[in-house]
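On clarity, I found the account of how folds are encoded harder to follow than it need be. Since the whole study asks how a given chain folds, the encoding of that fold should be made plain. For illustration, here is how one protein appears when written out as sequence plus structure tokens:
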Amino acid sequence: MTMTASERNGAEAPEPLFHGDAEAVAASGMPLPSLRVLQAAGAIQAQKTPKEHGGFKRMWREEDVLIASIGAAISEHFAWNIRIVAEAMAKTHPGTWSALTASIAETISPDVGALIRSTEDDWHLDLIDRKFLFLRVPPLVSTLLPDTPTGESALILGYATSKDTFQMLPWLLGHPEGRTKLSAITSPAQITTAERIYKLAIATRANALSTASINISMQVRAAWRRLHGLDAHFLQEVLR
């Protein structure tokens, strides 16, 4: 059974394993219809739990609420609609968002305080020229995620092909061994096209006209506090 962040940090009382719709919405900042879109795309998954007098109700794991908060941040800061947000999050390499929530488990504590602060180990999302989406992680993390290019901590997730659709780019494209693996499951023409777009994304990032960034670790920490009935504030909110 997966432990909650609270249990990993030795909380005195065990936290509930699942959270209802209202709690998930309040903590993640994602409206319920948008949570359903994320679920339909496969980015998160609700659980059906039996009601006391029959029937079922929808409940959410802590991890899914925290992941949903990343989607809310993408929608707000990148001005993406929920359809492309859901595609981008669902098409990201399996386990990536779970790895993020696990990576900050040791930094989450009710005693840290309501002001959400950045750390050098935070994860970021960078939107380059309003099209290419990169995940920027600490160097050590990039060595732990599967299929990533050696020594690369800015990982291309994919690119917006329209205002509603997102195309994933495999990390395997970033090194010869990966392209060899891909050649076994796709055509040479497809690999050539994908590699060309991959190189374009890397070059665009190096020579970007615009870059929008989100510290998604801070978003997740704030969502965790709200989920557990604690205040959470960003410095910009305090200054206002």
